[in-house]
Amino acid sequence: MSESESELFKGLTPAILVVDDSLAILDLLKEFLSEWGYGVTTARDGGEAKELLESKQFHLVLADLRMSPVSGWEVIRQAKEIEGTQVVVMTGFASLDTSLEAIRHGVFDFLEKPIDFDRLRRVVRNGVRHSILLHENSRLLEELACKNDELETEIRKVRNELEDMTIRDELTGLHNYRYLMNLLEREISRSVRYKHPLTLAMIDLDDFKTLNDTYGHSAGNEALKAIARIFTSSTRAADTVCRFGGEEFAIVLPVTTPHQAEPILERMCNQIRHQNIPVDSSHPLTISIGVAACPRDAQTVDDLIRLADKALYSAKENGKDQVVLATESTL
Questions:
Q1: pTM > 0.70
Q2: What is the pairing mode between strands 15-19 and 60-64?
């Protein structure tokens, strides 16, 4: 292989398949092509060539046209189905029709017999170069597609993280007020439309200001995080716990009546009480809960929250550490 060809192929030994029914031509072509630095495989007929094409990748196929029982055209058709493989036709019976047929088959070039070996060298070098460039282009496109997929995945991840930041409370990891409002709009609409019950529980931590004053805001934050974990573990998969603001939380319980929700919420009160999170030296942290339902009590977001808040106020006024359901008196 010449110095320029060595630089072009960068140490690669290009694979060439030579197909001809003349053993003398095969030996001659193999001798020259091997001397030029190519890896040469020969086939005595089209059938053998087709088997080789199925088992090995070639950069270039040099094929005679007149062979039997499998013609050179069949070999060419199969070779052109392989991405990047180039075909050079060899024939001793060149004609306009043959040239046009070769063009229709997408062959790279055309060599007439007897072979001009200077032209053969140029044609083979250009054909192999074209094949290598096609393979490299295909590799780069695959690499680009892969990188693009990775970039799109990263963009989706960042977008999801940013979106999550807008609907999550930073301290507790619960959904925030904004998310709660959107959720209630959807769930109330569904509740009214399908006449399914929807329960909203508003929760306030009793004497939380005393906890902050006694032990500091850092202890208060730790208490909020612990309470959030208890709420999450105590509710069902279909329920949603949100931080409403400050020391107030909300739980949305779809397809649930207040009476069905009540034992769930009572258990939460008991769990919080038995955590023994100190408000001060004399008593532990507790919670008060007010409950309202759609469509029974209200059919808008504002009304549902207002009524649940009124029930919560009643729980506070009547001794705290309890669950109060909205009744006629609170409507």
A1: no
A2: parallel
pLDDT 10s digits, 171-217: 999 999 999 999 999 999 999 999 999 999 999 999 999 999 999 99
What domains, with CATH codes, occur in the chain? 3-140 (3.40.50.2300), 177-325 (3.30.70.270)
Where does residue 196 fall: left (phi above 0), alpha (psi -120 to 50 degrees), or beta otherwise?
beta
Residue 214 phi, psi dihedral angles, 5° rounding: -80, -45
Q: Residue 326 corresponds to which tokens in the numbers above?
A: 């909205």
Question: Which residue numbers are catalytic?
Answer: 247
One-letter amino acid of 17 = L
CA angle 246, 220, 165 (to 5 degrees): 50
Residue entry with tokens 């199925």: 54
Strands of 287-294's sheet, edge to edge?
240-245, 248-254, 198-205, 287-294, 323-325
CB 262 within 8 A of CB 277: no
Each residue's pLDDT tens digit, 282-303 = 889 999 999 999 999 999 999 9
Tell me the helices (H) and strands (E) count for the chain, helix number first: 11, 10
Q: Of 209, 171, 203, 219, whose CA–CA distance to 272 is shortest?
A: 203
Q: 192 to each of 250, 262, 278, 303, 305, how far by Cα in Å?
A: 20, 21, 42, 14, 16
